[in-house]
What we know:
The protein is mainly β.
Amino acid sequence: MRTSLYIVFLVVMAQLASATHLRSGYISVQRLGPGSLTCRITITAYVSTQSPVAFGGGVLSFGDNTFEAEIPQVPGIARPDLGPGVGLATYITEHTYAASGAYVISYSENSRNAGIINLENSIFTPFYVETIYYLDPFLGEFNTPEFVVEPFFISRLGSPVSLAVGAVNTEDHFVRYELSVPNLERGTPTRGYILPENVSINAFSGLFSWEGKFRGQYIPGEYLFTVRIHQYKTINGNTYRLSSSSYDLQLILVDEPVGGRLWMNTTLDSNKRLYIPSGESRTNKFFFEPNGEQTTLQAYSELINTNEAFSFTTYDSSDATIKVGVLTLTSTPSINRENPYLIVIRGKQQSGASTLFTDDVILFYTRDVQPEIITGLVEEELQVDVYPNPVTDYLYIAMAGHQSVQIRLMNNSGVILLREVFTDSGYLDIRNLASGIYICLLRSGNQQRLVKIIKR
Length: 456
């Protein structure tokens, strides 16, 4: 008995030694030239510098049945500006595909960090991120979007959370955002994960909002969220998906006495849209409170080096309690394009050992167009996954976003045995069905998908 306990102890300690360091991350893809089938793939990981374990050693799948079984280990570079114990590690490689196609590029490593509040046994839960990249000459050359600000966040416990997860591209494609769930691997949701209540993300601006409560309480610590970032392109009036990336972000809530409150003097719509006609300018003011020591107010945008179109300055209020930011935007012919420019205003407040973040965003339009709502995408089939397969009791219906999907489960003779309508991911109970082969028909708008299901 003692020997068995000792073996269990050694196994647990081995997992502890090889884990606790991966906090969050994502995969970006860059195509190397027009017509090229070679892509530069970058894995970005935010790590715990308090762990002796380096990032690496996991499996990188290129989505074409080829792999890097163990990528080299990369030490994390300390990033004290993001928070104590936070580091950044990146791994870059190139891969040439044999043909066009939709490739699921993924990375998995058995090393998620310990102590995540909304994930049971996080220390024993693998870290998994993926990017679906559509490599097709018809879609042209493009890269996956890059974040405007570092997507790693620390906020004050007990205060509403407002953080920017916005990403941009240089090809004038448009980007949409949705909350998702972390995965163990492709299509398999992480067990023991709980999405806190009242969490949302604006589909157009990428502004992440949360009241900060988990199960009705304010609990300090680290929380895990997953955001999917989709990139689209319109060709001849049809909308095509170019890429879809999962980003695991960690938000740390700290029990500090101060925290920033950020607001602006311009009324925008719910999507933070600001249209400025060509040749005109608009000045907007932002106010960040409190204005204690080491308080800063900064603007981030791809326009930041375009002096004729973008200007941001700050000053202190007369009583030095509020930091004021003045953002002036000018719609010049050189920046005119179909899709908006994302501008992030970030207030930083040093409190103890932590730097607390509060964000607001503006979508700056140079053309008077409304954000496109994605419906009826031109794709081969409905992007809804169904698993496990074979199945014994429950089918998980994994939906890409909040949509209405009609589900019909039929036998081989076409007799409908189950009818359901899902508006979000969930489980379909098939325990009462006999063992055999069934057809699952999923429909949403003008898209559909047929899946053969084996019930054991």
